[in-house]
Amino acid sequence: MSELGRRRRLLVLAICCMSLLIVSLDATILNVALPSIQHDLHASVSGMQWTIDAYTLVMASLLMLSGSMADRLGRRRVFMVGLVVFALGSLLCSLAPGLGWLVVFRMVQAVGGSMLNPVAMSIITNTFTEPRERARAIGVWGGVVGISMAAGPVVGGLLVQSVGWRSIFWINVPIGALALFLTLRYVPESRAPRPRRVDPVGQLLVITLLGSLTYAIIEAPNAGWTSPQILVFVLVALGSLAGLLAYERRREEPLLDLRFFHSAPFSGATVVAVCAFAALAGFLFINTLYLQNIRGLSALDAGFYMLPMAGMTLIFAPVSGRLVGSHGPRPSLLCAGTAMGASGVLFAAFGAQSTNALMFTGYVLFGIGFGLVNAPITNTAVSGMPRTQAGVAAAVASTSRQVGQSLGVAVIGAVLAGGAHATATTDAFLAAARPAWWIIAGCGAAVLLLGVLTTGRWAQETARRTAALFDDDGTRGPGQGQGQGRGKGQGATDARP
C-alpha cells in the first residue's frame, strides 16, 4: 500500500472518516432523540438506557474479535461487511414498531459498528506508512469525533423536531452506501502476515460478563437489588469474570493477555477510559432528560444548549494531541480530571442548573475536560509496549471506552430512575440527579488521580518490565501485525468514542 499515490491515500482516509462519522454521529444524535422515543414508544427510564447500552455492550464485546477477523480475512472485506450491516441496522431502527425491536436493531447496528472503527484505523495505519504522514492522517481521523460531537446535537434536534426521531437513523444509510461504493473501488485489500487465532471461549465469557452486569445495574431499581432475578445476574457476572481470568491465563493466544495489566500505564489507561466515558455518557443522559423533560425545550433548542460542551471538545481535542506529543500524557490527564471533576461538583454542590450562566460554565468545563482526556488514553496504554503489542493495547483502550459508556448510562440511569420521568417536578429531578453528578465528579477525580499515578517514573518502569515479559519468553504477543509502525503519536490522535 505504500505505493499508493497521495490522492489515493487521502481518498482512503476520507472513506475511513466517513465510517467514523456515521458511528460517532449516531451516538450524539440518539441522546437528543431519547425524550421523543420515550414518549412515542411509552418507554421507561430503563427502556431508554437499553436503547444506548444494547449498542455499546455489543460494540465493546466484539471490537477485538472484529479486529482479528479483519487481520485474518482481509481488512477491506470486513470493513465492507461492517458498512452493510450498520446501514441495514440503521434502516431497521427507523422502522422499529416498539421498544423491544428498537433495542434488537440497535444490536444489529453495533455488530456492524464493531467492524468499522478499529478496522478503519488499521486500514489507515497500513495506508500511511511514513510516520509523520500517518500522524497527520490519524489527527484528521480524531478530529471527526469532535465534528460529530459538535454537529450531532444540532443535527439530531433539527431532524427530531422537523421529521421525527426515526429520521435520525436515515442519515446513516446514504453515507454508508456511498462509503461502500468508494471502498469497493478505491481501498486496497490487506491482511496481517500472522493473524491471531480466534478465542471463542474468551469472547463468550466477555459477552456474558458485560451483559449480565449491565442488566443487573439497569433493572435493579425496578426489581430490587435483593431480588432473585438481580442476584442471579450478579452471580453470573462474577462467575464469568472468574472464568475469564482463569481461562485467559492458560491460553497461548488469549483474547486479552493478562500480562498487559502488569504495566501501570496500561492498567491506568483502561480505568481512565472507563471513567471518562462513563462520565460522558452520564452527562449526556442527565442533560438530555433535564433540558427536554424538565425545562420543556424542544430537541433543537436542547441541541443548541449543548453546544458549549461540544464546542470545547472540538477545540481541546487537537490541543491535547499536540500536548501529549510534546509533553507526554500527564498534563492532559491532570487538566482533564480537574475540569471534569469541577463540572460535576458545580452541578452537585452548587446547583448549576439554577442559572444559565452557571449551567453553561459547567458545560464548558466538562467539554474542556473530555476534549483533553481522549488523546492520552491510548498513548498511555501503549507507553513502553513493544510495537507488536501496540495494536491490541489500543484495541483494549477502545473497548474500555465502550464499556465506560455502557456502565455510565446504566449507573446514572439507575440513580435517576426515581425522578427522570417526563412528568417529574424540577425539584424531584434535581434531587434525583444530585447523586449522579457526584458520581460524575468522582469519575473526574479518578482521572486526575490515575494521571498522577500512571505517568511517572515508577509507572514507566512497570511498562518496561511488562514489555520484557514478551521479549523474554519469545512468544508472538497478541496483536502482531495489527498496528505495526504506528510511532509515538498514535495514541495522541486515536479519539474513537
Low-confidence stretches: 474-497
Bin the strand percentage: under 5%
Order of helices and strands: HHHHHHHHHHHHHHHHHHH
The share of residues in helices is over 70%
The dominant shape is: globular
What is the CA-CA span between the terminal residues? 27 Å
Name the quaternary structure: single chain
- Figure out the total of helices: 19
* Rounded average pLDDT: 82
Strands, total number: 0
Mind describing the biggest β-sheet?
none
Please give the radius of gyration in angstroms: 21 Å
Structural class: mainly alpha
What does this entry look like structurally?
The protein has helices at 6-40, 45-73, 75-94, 99-114, 117-127, 131-162, 167-170, 172-186, 200-223, 228-250, 264-294, 299-305, 307-327, 330-350, 356-382, 387-416, 426-453, 457-473, 490-493. Helices cover 79% and strands 0% of the residues. It contains 19 helices and no strands. Helix 1 packs across helix 12, helix 2 runs antiparallel to helix 9 and helix 6 runs antiparallel to helix 13. The protein is mainly α and 497 residues long. The relative contact order is 0.14. It is globular and about 60 Å long.
Fold blueprint:
Elements: H1 6-40, H2 45-73, H3 75-94, H4 99-114, H5 117-127, H6 131-162, H7 167-170, H8 172-186, H9 200-223, H10 228-250, H11 264-294, H12 299-305, H13 307-327, H14 330-350, H15 356-382, H16 387-416, H17 426-453, H18 457-473, H19 490-493
Helix pairs in contact: 1-2, 1-5, 1-6, 1-8, 1-11, 1-12, 2-3, 2-4, 2-9, 2-16, 3-4, 3-5, 3-8, 5-6, 6-12, 6-13, 9-10, 9-16, 11-15, 11-16, 11-17, 13-15, 14-15, 14-17, 15-16, 16-17
